[in-house]
Amino acid sequence: MTTLWSKISAALPLNEEQFPLQFSDKVESSVVEMLKRCRQQLYSDATSGTSRMLNAQIILDFSWEKLNTGTWRHVDKEWRRVYSYGCLFKVAALCREDPSADEVLQAVRTCDMGLLMGAAIMDNILQVIVRILQREVRESTKEGDESEHAEVKRIKIECPHVPVIKEELAVPRMKCPSLESFNTNCLLPLKPVILEGIIDHWPALNQHPWSIEYLRSVAGCRTVPVEVGSRYTDEEWSQQLLTVNGFIDRYILNKDGEEALGYLAQHQLFDQIPELKEDIRLPDYCCLGEGDEDDITVNAWFGPGGTVSPLHQDPQQNFLAQVVGSKYIRLYSPEDTDKLYPHQSQLLHNTSQVEVENPDTERFPEFAKAPYLECVLKPGEVLFIPVRHWHYVRSLELSFSVSFWWS
Amino acid sequence: MRWFGFGFNAFGQIYVHEKLMKGECSNSVNEVKVISPTELTLANHVDRSDCCQIRASWSRRASLHLDGDSCVCLEGFGASSASCGIHVKESRGCKDASISESYLTLAFSDRIESWDLQKEEKTPTWSMEIKTDNSGPPLNLPVVPGGYIATKPPFYRSLSPHLKAKSLALSAEHAILLSASGAVYTWGLGSHGQLGHGGLTSEEEPRAVEALWGMPMSCVATGGWHSVCISDGGDLYVWGWNESGQLGLPSRGLRKALQEQHSQQAGIPCQDASTSPAEEQQEGEKHEEVFISIQAFPALLDITPSCEIRTVSCGSRHTAAVTTTGDLYTWGWGNYGQLGHQTLISSDEPQRVEFFREQQMRVVNVVCGMWNTFAAVVKEEVACS
Known about the structure:
The structure holds 2 protein chains of 2 kinds. By secondary structure, chain A is α+β, with helices and mostly antiparallel strands. In chain A, 33% of the residues lie in helices and 18% in strands. Chain A is elongated, with a radius of gyration of 24 Å. The two termini of chain B are 25 Å apart. The chains are: A alpha+beta, B mainly beta.
């Protein structure tokens, strides 16, 4: 019987000499010295767990400060690598000596912090280790899952205000169009369309239908960023880091009476949790673009009914695939931008000031004159949102969508 | 004058533990996190009771001995295992010094030099001539005639003469300048409110902090993401990021971190970094507490009981202030013992460091490294009975 530590150990380099610690000059020698202390302790038995944790935490604290200095875009990749090393040493310290269930969860969380905020090190070793840890977590929680089914009933069933779509404003639909047909009728003229039947083959809709139970089993203990607040233009809006279980408990099932809205939005979940990536496919139509397949950004959007993405535009083409639940979506052409009152600030200039389903007609008189298309997007349907097309999205019930940003 | 240090000591910059002297590295928590003020042993050869000044970076501490044959001694990372640390020969005759993680900057009466601490070279990485006259104000790094010395190249940055720079504090990404007339200017990155102009935008050029206009200030300091200044009347103003309580204002981030620590220690599995509202209500406190994570305008900080502040210094996420009555108050991030309250707990409320009172010592100065604090004390005059 192999212990958890022996499995993790097997994923690490054989000895100290083969453990790489290469950094640019940007990383001061005092920091490299501390990293070397951590490495030495990793391969030595003659040291205490407290000491290993202490040194790993020093690396994490120092690199955390670097990560928060300047703008995120300009943070030197070296400091993100150092942060990942800190996570690695901390995980090793947590798992070394017969870790408790809670310590294993802490280790999963630490791997996630490294995956979210750090940069890949040693052939993405944090991804390798989190997979080992998840297996451990799954094995120890196999018993006692009867409570799951009762949970699903607790989800709010009432769907407030399902909009009736006016036929003349409905987004046109096509069923499995050929590449040529899509290109000619939609992509080149930049016209929105709902594509039906093109994701019917996704495992997410077949062999592994995505559900709350499924997500808990595949990713329950993983930490993800969650947006809290009614919309990102609100003052009260903030971001939190939660486990998927914690997010489901608090914001989907409302276990503790939480009133605020939580939305797992715009997160590259499929890079973080490869098992979920296997449940989806890249839409073939993306090959009509000029960009590389590797440059396509895939985001997950998972949340309860009522989440709102304010009217905004993006600089790339978008396929929005609906997997679970339904969303009300409204689209405005970039030609009518002058009637949509975008924010002036640099940060929000791609976002309209208007609340689409409750517009202030005094402040925004021209808005009512802007023509639009609308739809209720249902499971199995994919909405093509042309580049820079303004779009507003409200979930009508528990919803999981996948977006593909391509050029 | 004696100096005491507490906080981060992983490189022996506060005191050197036996193992370090033998060339091993000690990894005991007590030695890496010094929670109780510990007297600094100063270089043996320095045969006087006055160590004038301390400067500290993350991994080092520099002691400036400015009497007569002045010099700078370095302790911490890279210092030799002998107990007196490195004696920087090249520093003989210097008037002032400043230290960052990468460079040691020395100010002489006729020149400024920056030495690269990562390399062992015989000459400074950079130097420049200056003209000072003995009648003018003493050198006050990083301010130099015509400008200031930055923490990384290009070292010399000019400053407009109309600013009349008297003193300057620098963090990695922002700067605060005190003019001869007591006005305060800030520039650099503003994303955490550290510039004090009311927003989160950055400034490329020094911009006056209007909220303080008309109130002459006497001292300025910067932390990693916060700024502090003292008025002529001894009032303390703070602004910037408060995620660890470094502003001395209620910090939600701090309360959450403390709860997480608490539940981990109590053995309660804690998966999330956020507090559940139900827990807070159970404590019976129903009052609505206003938390401040970013203070974009200067705020007056009341350090109770009312007292005048004499000097202040900041680490990356903590603040230390000395009162005119000789007390030291600290607040902010405390995970390494840098608050000196003999715990590893952070605090969003200024608290007095009782150690000095108990020892009947009067604190007269404070200088912070990134994660530690150094206090200068003199013996309290014993009251005649």
